[in-house]
Amino acid sequence: MAFNPYQSDKFKAFIPSDQISEYQDYLTFQCNSYKATEQEVTETWRMRDRLKTVSVGLVVCLNIGVDPPDVIRPNPCATLECWVDTTGQAPGKALENIGKNLQQQYEFWQPRARYRTALDPTTDDVKKLCIGLRKSSKDERVLLHYNGHGVPRPTINGEIWVFNKEYTQYVPLSLYDLLSWVGSPSVFVFDCSCAGYLIQSYNKFEKHEQGMSAIFLAACSKNESLPMNPDLPADLFTSCLTTPIEISIRWFVLQRDLLWHVPMDVAVKIPGKLNDRKTPLGELNWIFTAITDTIAWSVFPRELFKKLFRQDLMVAGLFRNYLLAERIMKSYGCNVTSIPSLPPTSHHELWETWDLVLDMCLSQINDVLKEKKEYEFSSFFEDQLVCFEKWLDRGERRAPIQLPIVLQVLLSQQHRIRALRLIARFVDLGPWAVREALSVGIFPYTLKLLQSPAVELKEVLVYIWCKIICVDLSVQSDLLKDSAFMYFVNILKNVEEPLDRRKMCLLILTLFCKDHPAGQEAICGVEMELESDCLRQWQCVFKGILIKNNQLLKLEFLKDYEKMHLWISDRDANVRASVLFLLTCSLGGEEEVFLDYETKIALSLISLINDSSPIVRNELVIFYSHFIYLYFNKFILAAFDLIEKKGDKSRYSLMDLDKAGFSAFSPVWKAMLVLSVDSYPSVSTPAKHCVDQIHSQFIRKKNRFTSSQPELSSSSMFDSSRSFKTSNFSINPNNNNPIKLPLKSSFLEYSTEFFNKEKSLNLNKWKQQRNWKMKQEYLQSDLDLLKFDEFGVLTNDLDSNIDYCKFHTFDSHLISCSNSTLTIWDWKFGKKINEFKNHENKQCKISNICFLNEENDSMIACASNDGIVRIWKDYNHQFNESLVTSWRCLLDLMPMRNFPNVFVDFWQNCGTLVCAGDSKSIKLWDVEKQSCINDISTHCMVGATCLTTERVGCCLIVAGFVDGSLRFYDKRLKSSNCIVNTFHEHSTAVLNVKLQNQGFRDVISGSAEGDIRYWDVSSTASIKSLNLSRISSLDFHDAYPLIASSSENQDVKIFNSDGHILSNNKYHEGFLGHRISPVTSLSFHSLDTVLAVGSTDGDITIFKATKI
């Protein structure tokens, strides 16, 4: 039977289940740095200057039967004009039919336009037609089509030809006159030889004339003649522009020798209608639209694509067909030209797909027409959905070519759900993907689908809309039209809907109301009762947005705020912060009754200065900044009182301060002083600004009154009115970018950041594969006959001890700590990656570190001996490390040593940080919710010296103590009595303890006396012991039976579990190898047989195992 690594105890600690991976992603988001960022708003996808082609002029100059002097027609030659054979009927009748057909061909693309035809016209006829079209079109677009097959070619000067009244002469017509008659905006289609001269002339005019806005489509370049192949229509360019399916099939048959048996007119025999997608002909047109749209979107610049393919239905249709014209005309030596100039597309890969679609159609059409079989519809859209799905699985950060095709699939009832789910996966990649989807034109479809009652659409539509509104708030007005927002209201009100879906609906409605008075008014008219605890965060944010500028709603809320105020103690930090956001929005009422409510609330929030979440503390600073702004002068008095108490007896009288209501503001002022020295910069910085401003105003007023009226009391020095009467009051006026009071909260932007998070497509998959490979190598490794040799030395610039080292399990990163400095190394290459300060306080140093999210986007939890834990991300990016969060993990540190110990370990599976140290308790912190979830009594009067935890079940905690005791705790038991076992076999302090192999029972510990002991959780005594010489540093391997120790003799010894010495290192390698410096830190790699040795000279020596 083959060995299954999944059944191994070794592997249980590294189970990378999908559930865990998703949790890690969410945890990474929740621990994002809380920074004030403005939401990026982009409306580049929205067409603001949408136009319509409302008038079409068709100028046909054929003079059938008479060839122009500069044309020599071969025999046979092309005789079809607008699919009318000019030789099979009288010239006049043929010309009339050509005009009718041309109009019908254009009407398919714009049936509501006004059409006027000029057949073999004079100059006056053309002028009258053009002026009439512009007059009736006003500011809308006019299209002028010119067929010049029966007149001479355009001149170099940009003149086309028409006739005189007697048809005895060709009369030149200047392009400049034509432009002036038609006006702007306009579209010109020139189907004639040497049409490029007209493009050249227009470019000259445009340089001298301002305000010209014309689009030109020309059949060929200058000095090129139109093809006269008898198997093709004479107006090949016009056929491409107006009947693309018919000409595509004819051209395809001509290009394929194997299709000799297929008649040329097979296109007209294909059953169905062009505008009916459920018929063979309609399906071909649908596929053609999708392919040409995709070609243009993937090749053209976005602004150009938007202008040509999304501004005007007629222009969009013409340019889709123009891409076909470029391909077909090029095969006959003609290079179509246009204004604006377009990149070449004739060799785009999707044309081969179009050829395949035509081939599949023609291969069965004969049998279908003979009723031998049913028509088998194309699998084109299904195949493209598969391609899109594959791209989502393994693509790069570049929008997939299939995106416009998926948009077309939304038109199909059959594939709509699948297409929407794929689009939802795509927009989930980040804001860039949302913008790409919007630019391709997804928005009108998603807006229209809100009118659908289909239950199966709810989940995916809510998700897509959540992504869209997070990226662009301009969709607020679209949701207001026809009450489209009620789609989300109805889902939110339905308690049977999944909570996640209701939460996203609440987010959508919150953003719908943000800075949108009309939306707020519409929402206020809808009754909604939301009682779910899972919706607390967005309930508060939503209500805060609504009441912010509504005095009546503010008063109603304040009279009954106790209910939501209870949520301030919620375990989830986001809920606590959202309550503060709501309370901040409730401040600033105009009536005096607000004073009592506001002061009561402000006093009740003071305890939050010790909250574990910097998000909550930041929102507390925002709240107090608003409160200070409202009662600014009272806070100057509070600062005055505090300064006076610290100094000598002041000559200013404070006897009437209580009468001014001063007593309620002093505690808040003291809370702001505490917040101004917070460990998290995004909390301390704005708090400092508020404090500094109060102090500066106090000093300025004090100096003014001291010089003028020194005997005035403080109550007359400072006006006790409610607000500070300066609307543009700002902090630090000497700064070029002063921060204004009150401070602005970014909690809403922070809350929506999860939906805007950019996701990597391939990096995570690569990491998973790499991690899996490393785990397999670990499972298959053999420890027999190993010795440890020096692998390299990491030389540190810091002239201080290495206090602690830690290897990353999967990356080649080694973190070393020296006082307050973190240094990140690539130990395999011996290179320093980054170095930064964990904190600025020189009185404390780093005590312990651990990794979070090692499988994916790693972070470091760094504990200092003042009891504060700081979590860093991007630590391996030089100068770009980012502080995620910080809080005081242990509040009751015992002053037993100069530098108290604090130890941390992380349970990845449940997102819990375990903290112990010189404290009478072990605290368990939920990192995601940023709250303490358990407070375990150590039942010991001395502090902990080491800590280890069981990683799989997230239950067992083992701690060693100063008195040599070893204590086992189970978090599932009652917090006051979680201890399950205590051992007192060590006579001195426990240096280290480790749960080896991440098992449930194997524990190894060691003391300074060299007493190494093995334990079983269920035993009453150690099951094995080793006696080594006295040691100063000690570490055990997580997975292998390896022990590393160092002593005052400046040596590093590595033992196996039997006490056999595998390696004894006293000197560095080399001919002149010097003695190893006194060792201060030892650390094994979690998977590899590698040891890091930190010393007093600041260097780190790496030892790696090799086979003897």
Q: Roughly how many Å apart are the termini? A: 31 Å
CATH superfamily of the largest domain: YVTN repeat-like/Quinoprotein amine dehydrogenase
Strand content: 15-25%
CATH architecture of the largest domain: 7 Propeller
E-strand count? 40
Q: How would you sum up the major sheet?
A: 6 strands, mixed
Report the radius of gyration as a whole number of Å: 39 Å
Shape verdict? elongated
CATH structural class of the largest domain: Mainly Beta
Structural class: alpha+beta
Q: How many domains in all? A: 5
Poorly predicted runs are 1-42, 648-660, 710-737
Biggest sheet strand order reads 4-1-5-8-9-10
Mean pLDDT: 85
Helix content: 25-40%
CATH topology of the largest domain: Methylamine Dehydrogenase, Chain H
